Amino acid sequence: MHDLQENLDMLTKAYPQETLEGDGVVVNRLFPISQRMNFDPFVLWDHFNISAGHGFPDHPHRGFEAITYMLTGGMHHKDNLGNDAFVSKGGAQVFCAGKGIVHSEMPAEEGQSVGIQLWINLPKRLKTIKPSYQQVLSENLPVTTFEGGYCRTIVGEGSPIELHTDITYQHVKIEQNKQYQIYINQGLNAVIYVLSGDIVLAGEALSPTESLLIKADEEQNLSIQAKTGSEFMFCCGLPHHQPIYQHGPYVD
Predict the structure, then answer these.
(1) How many structural domains is the chain composed of?
(2) How far is CA 40 from CA 18, 87, 111, 129, 167, in A?
(3) Across residues 37-58, what is the average pLDDT?
(4) Fewer CB within 10 Å: N-end or C-end of the chain?
């Protein structure tokens, strides 16, 4: 096992770009943007903050899976499969677009609704499967505590969410001056995205909306230090090593 600080070529510090989407929604988009189209198997990463009266009216998708994880507020999902559901803080809505789905996502009727939307590519052999939808409330996502914080697992061990791509996806909160260890198996691509506070990883200081993209050519053991009380998202996944053709709402 190598110290990540000795493998800085495996790290990319990344910044999001404000992007207008849907009906008057400005998102902090980590990718796809002109400098960075995707990060196999991940296709899109949007950090959104939606006020009531805006959102994402009916629109189509195909060729990928998506997770909308709520940090505050809530989101109302409705689709052409007959699903009509609302999820609030700490919960997640998941759909597999497969060969095609039409849906809308509209925020809670009051206040701000904040969350992360993550798209995961489907392997070529699964691009035309039937679409599907899952919803998991906050109380059904496993939470583990550690000295100085907690970790909620959105996808991974103990979570009821099932995907067609092998990923781990977590929301971590850590107190000031505490540390947290993350392990990344060889061959995986990983994203660490700061929601609030300030953390240090492999000599890199990260502030809100900043991230590290990590290509783990060898197994990694990461020590994350919180300079202030902090929250961050962590996800890692096995690349498909297939071309990603993302054009608007479609990933072919």
Answers:
(1) 1
(2) 22, 28, 34, 20, 11
(3) 96
(4) N
The alpha-carbon radius of gyration of the chain (Å, integer) is 17
- Burial (CB < 10 A; 0-12, 13-18, 19+), residue 227, is middle
Domain region containing 199: 4-251
What pTM value is reported for the model?
0.95
Report the percent of the chain where pLDDT is more than 90: 94
Q: What's the maximum distance between 2 C-alpha atoms anywhere in the chain?
A: 51
Residue 66 identity? A
Rounded CA gap, 151 and 229, in Å?
A: 14
- Assess whether pLDDT exceeds 70 at residue 233: yes
CATH of the domain at 198: 2.60.120.10
User: Rounded CA gap, 16 and 28, in Å?
Assistant: 5
